[in-house]
């Protein structure tokens, strides 16, 4: 019988060790570790080089090591780089493993199994490959504290047989997971080969989008797709991505969204294909604050003393992952919660672990783009991995990215912290006082610039814009971080020695919490400073009694592009990706990337589009428009049905609502309130059903805010929504920050107003109007109320299926159009 060639599974030493040897608790230091990882990313390599250069004798740095382990069905190729190799005077060869950390060295006890395990792997491979017959090999763990530059060293010497037993035990345990993944991939790929498009036919435009997505994924390019609601965008993106997996060696799909409801659509699409024979595993990653079993408790802490799920989590985690994977394909939030309780593990951490072994990860944009919470286990330095990003509702990514890549600190926080510290912790208090003093000086500069002073409380917002990064403040913040390390050590000692329930303990815990909050914000600020370039400004603004010092990302295109490099291909799509060239530029597209614009599949006559060109919604004229807008709304509501009216602000909405209710009390209406809970939002939408509890006459008018939760991402099909009235052109509120964006793009491409105001505003309009026609059987009415919609530069932004719009200048003219529709 001819022997078949075995597959070679390439994996790093660190990956194997951190998966197999992990154990113990999730503790409060985990909160620090997320930020610690960022600083280590920026400073760790430099620290390694510093330690390596300080060594003497025959010390070798960055020694590449690899070894193949042949098993029954496959070969595991293990590789990595030892930080250092040297020989002591005793003649023992040592492997040096360097770990950079922000944790005070007093808390490092040299008991981390993964650190020893990583070094022991290198010791075994070195002893076998580089110096065969080496009886004993030493392992040294060198911990370097990034802030204090102190070093702590631990040493052990292992016999070759001891290392060999450890190594083979480790590989055999890891092989179980390799076999599971390998067997599943074969089963998955076989089902994909047999998979047909899950519907009898493609909708209009659906085949074109699916084909373009497939070509882009297999060619490892980006695709920017403007695809209207109704063609089946979700299936058009997921189906070709799945079909591409076997032949393009695509290993994982990330379906990235801004809203929970869009994630549900992705699950539905996969479920439809699974019902037709597809073998495919998906996992939903839910935000930690939402899925945590203690999220309702303000005292929630990831601490073994508080949370039983955190206590010993890593001892049970692998069993929980294996059990969940073996018994589920669609790993929803409910499934994760069920198995987390069964195995007594943290549901959030388990969802991240599960994502390693699933074929698709359905999650928020943050997990691919945010510099703090992105999925490092996949995406940090993994440019050799074959992933695809499917980015849904991509119009949301522009402002989300600006927010992710910006950071700020406030004077008020340091002023409060200075007061809280009192007479204790003098070194930390001095640093806090220095920062507060520095920010106060800038506050005075802001006031002087505008001719204001602190006694004059009439000012609203005064600001200074710097193109350069403020290195002096950065130095003060670095001092703050260093002093925090000492403070945390002191307070932890005090907390450990304090009597449970004592006032002293409560005081120390509250103080630690206040310092920790400031510490996190400073660490994030310092992290973002690493991205600072010509696309940033430092925006300093005095607001009432406070001062904001902000690193403001004006153009996120470069950083979005760097994040997208973590995938081989990205399909960026939305119903409102218009103008397409604007989104292509701002979302990091280049000349090689393709674009596609799919026309609306619906009959043009199904949408009655009217522009009310006699309404001026500019801020100074709004008060004059309340009654006229109310008249237009009432004419719209004369025809039985459900209607949504969208306003550019809560204030505008509230004032018009009061006028409308006073003038037309017989028309049932409801209004969106600020900061609605999820339950309140659902209750609002429940009114738009076939059994309308508030609308006995058969009509209901809902007043909403443009760009809010009800203007996109909701499906009110059929008679649930008959039409929409949109007040204004959707411009973002005039602000200093928007004007800074405008100035930046004026200098870059002479399209500052368009990029800062006009295009984002029009996108909100298109989203709100898109609530009306959701299926090919829907018929509906959209009224745009603003004279600017009649101007040529706005009409150029109308999609092609809006070309049949009609213009009116009186409610009576509108009535005649509606009667004929």
Task: Tell me about this structure.
This protein folds into 5 domains: 7-175, Lambda Exonuclease, Chain A (Alpha-Beta Complex); 195-280 and 361-403 and 556-601, P-loop containing nucleotide triphosphate hydrolases (Rossmann fold, 3-Layer(aba) Sandwich), CATH 3.40.50.300; 290-358, no CATH class; 407-553, no CATH class; 604-820, P-loop containing nucleotide triphosphate hydrolases (Rossmann fold, 3-Layer(aba) Sandwich), CATH 3.40.50.300. Helices cover 45% and strands 19% of the residues. It is built from 27 helices and 25 strands. An 8-stranded parallel β-sheet has the order 10-9-11-8-12-17-7-18, sandwiched between helices. It is globular and about 100 Å long. 40% of the residues are buried.
Strands, count: 25
Number of separate domains: 5
The CATH homologous superfamily name of the largest domain equals P-loop containing nucleotide triphosphate hydrolases
Low-confidence stretches: 28-36, 454-460
User: What composes the largest sheet?
Assistant: 8 strands, parallel
How would you state the average pLDDT, rounded? 89
CATH architecture of the largest domain: 3-Layer(aba) Sandwich
Spatial arrangement of strands, main beta sheet: 10-9-11-8-12-17-7-18
CATH class of the largest domain: Alpha Beta
- Total helical segments: 27
- Shape descriptor: globular
Briefly note the CATH topology name of the largest domain: Rossmann fold
**Termini separation (Å)?**
76 Å
